[in-house]
């Protein structure tokens, strides 16, 4: 049974815009973050592997093996450094697909949060295609702070790949420029 089939059976998963998924070459997949269900939910949209970020604190005990097997990249949310960003950029330049959540953490109330500038830096430095995705219903299925799965419909909306104009790229340098790109990415997610 594929992940997609499991999500369809458990949560009535509906995917809109699947034909827009970029499946060739380096792809920076960006999505809002509602639940621990999000990485496998988005990973199940693709036929092959994907890398994604996970809190460094999850890489303990037997879970370390599991997260490593799932191609997770540890990130320290309390003290972010350039190491994880460089890893993502390197993976993208090698032609891989990487999932990031621009908000940096799961939503508590379901609303979209502020994008962090790091996603803008990754987008600009990697040169990868940017694939926006919006998830609805995963928060209701497995809310932040809960260990209990609830049966709620989950909808995934795949947007058109983003492209930046040469003028936008010229203005996008330094922290302000990275934030401008991150905000544009979050706006694309919000419009889905």
Description of the molecule:
The protein is of the alpha/beta class. It starts with a helix and ends with a helix. It has one domain (about 5-190): Glycerol-3-phosphate (1)-acyltransferase, CATH 3.40.1130.10. It has a seven-stranded mixed β-sheet with strand order 1-7-6-2-5-3-4. The protein is globular, with a radius of gyration of 16 Å. It has helices spanning about 5-10, 40-45, 60-70, 80-95, 115-125, 140, 165-170, 175-190, and strands spanning about 15, 25-30, 50-55, 70-75, 95-100, 130-135, 155-160. Helix 3 links the parallel strand 3 (about 50-55) and strand 4 (about 70-75). The mean pLDDT is about 85. The chain has eight helices and seven strands; from the N terminus they run H-E-E-H-E-H-E-H-E-H-E-H-E-H-H.
> What is the H/E string?
HEEHEHEHEHEHEHH
Percent of residues in beta strands: 15-25%
Distance between the termini: 29 Å
- Mean pLDDT comes to 84
Number of domains: 1
Helical fraction? 25-40%
What top-tier CATH class fits best? Alpha Beta
CATH superfamily: Glycerol-3-phosphate (1)-acyltransferase
* SS summary, helix count: 8
Structural class of the helices, strands and pairings? alpha/beta
In this structure, how is the largest beta sheet organized?
Answer: 7 strands, mixed
Strand tally: 7
Shape: globular
Question: The CATH topology is what?
Answer: Glycerol-3-phosphate (1)-acyltransferase
User: What is the name of the CATH architecture?
Assistant: 3-Layer(aba) Sandwich
Parts with pLDDT < 50 across at least 5 consecutive residues: none
Please give the order of strands in the largest beta sheet.
1-7-6-2-5-3-4
Radius of gyration: 16 Å
User: What does the oligomeric state look like here?
Assistant: single chain
């Amino acid at each position: 049974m594929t992940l997609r089939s499991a999500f369809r059976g458990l949560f009535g998963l509906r995917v809109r815009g699947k034909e827009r998924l970029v499946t060739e070459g380096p792809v920076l997949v960006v999505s809002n973050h509602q639940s621990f269900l999000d990485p496998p939910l988005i990973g199940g949209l693709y036929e092959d592997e994907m890398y994604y970020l996970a809190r460094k604190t999850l890489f303990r005990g037997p879970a370390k093996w599991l997260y490593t097997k799932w191609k997770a990249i540890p990130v320290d949310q309390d003290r972010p450094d350039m190491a994880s960003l460089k890893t993502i950029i390197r993976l993208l330049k090698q032609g891989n697909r990487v999932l990031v959540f621009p908000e940096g953490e799961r939503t508590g109330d379901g609303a979209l949060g502020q994008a962090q500038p790091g996603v803008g830096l990754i987008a600009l430095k990697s040169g990868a295609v940017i694939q926006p995705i919006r998830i609805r219903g995963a928060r209701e299925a497995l809310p932040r702070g809960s260990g209990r799965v609830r049966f709620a419909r989950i909808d995934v909306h795949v947007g058109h790949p983003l492209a930046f104009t040469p003028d936008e790229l010229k203005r996008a340098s330094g922290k302000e420029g990275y934030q401008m790109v991150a905000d544009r990415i979050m706006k694309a997610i919000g419009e889905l």
